Amino acid sequence: MPADTTKSTKSIMSGMRQLEIRTRRMVNDSLAGEYHSVFKGRGMDFDEVREYSPGDEVRTIDWNVTARAGRPFVKKFTEERELTILLLVDISASGNFGSAPMSKRDLAAELASALAFSAIRNSDKVGLLLYTDRVERYLPPKKGRRHVLRVVRDILYHTPEGRGTDSVKALDVASHVLHRRAIVFLISDFQSPGDPEKTRAELRRAMRQTNRRHDLIAVQVEDPRERELPNVGVLALEDAETGEVIELDTANPAVRKRFKELSSARARCMTSDFRAEGVDTLELKTDTPYMPALQRFFKTRVHRRV
Asked: One digit per residue, pLDDT tens: the chain, 306 residues?
């Protein structure tokens, strides 16, 4: 028994080290500049109040001080020196699926690692919230390589207690534990059991509330087989989160067409909901390198900010 434990520990350390080397290299070569441009200085810290001068924005007036002093005062802000990144990572059972060499959970782990190493490279804090149909683990935002390695380890090797997905609960908890403005990455395949319309309405409400106080970015991780079925005859499909099994005759063109229509309609609904709530989105696929997509996403945000 002790030998197996030692082997397991060595395997975990080796996996973490390989991921660290891989993501650090990509961050240093490809991502560092984009990360800094997108996120540094997006927030402002309160500094002091001073008397109003002609030309000051009316919305910066501190009405409480103004009322006490009998003359107008405005709030003065300084650019935020450090940022807080919170990674909300869906580790539900559906994330274990992958028709490519990489599963959805593997892809989520790689992306989260790249973001975490980008953050500590810029002396920002990184936090982690793992969730299924419940909050599985929460690591408060901190700085430093040692903390980031713990974040990476938990994403890779935490054994979930739940199987389903509740992104609403994750967002609500994040809003509760974050006391200052943060960059919140919601990384999920957004596949939730239950009433689709009710789930959509609840998720929109949670995203709206989170995005008011923070900078919410939704990262949708999917596998190409979730959009289009191959022609392989009769195929048994099991819902990883509910255990429900259905059989589909993929040799039938009408079945494949209907599957594609339904998955495309679901994707359009998600895109529409994100856009309606002002949430920036990044779509990643298990069969495609994620770094080019992440770079394009950052550059788009930089251009829009300018």
From this structure: 333 444 567 776 777 777 777 777 777 766 766 776 677 554 555 567 888 888 787 878 889 989 999 999 888 765 556 789 999 999 998 888 877 778 998 899 889 988 998 888 888 899 999 999 999 999 999 998 889 889 988 988 899 999 889 999 999 999 999 988 899 999 999 987 766 788 889 999 999 999 999 999 999 999 988 888 877 777 777 666 677 777 887 888 888 888 888 888 888 999 999 999 999 999 999 989 888 899 888 888 876 655
pTM: predicted TM-score of the whole model, two decimal places: 0.78
- Does one domain contain both 266 and 214? yes
- Residue 102 C-beta-side C-alpha neighbours within 13 Å: 19
As a whole number of angstroms, the distance between CA 141 and CA 125 comes to 5
Residues 276 and 292 in one domain: yes
Both tokens assigned to 6:
């030692």
Q: Which of 29, 56, 79 is the last residue of a domain?
A: 79
Of residues 92, 93, 98, 102, the one with CA closest to residue 226: 98
How many Å is the Cα radius of gyration of the chain? 22
Domain that residue 66 falls in: 44-79
Same domain, 192 and 212: yes
When divided into structural domains, the chain yields a total of 2
Say if residue 163 is in the same domain as residue 54.
no
> How close are the terminal C-alpha atoms of the chain, in Å?
59
User: Are both 27 and 50 inside the same structural domain?
Assistant: no
Q: Is there a domain that residue 6 lies in?
A: no
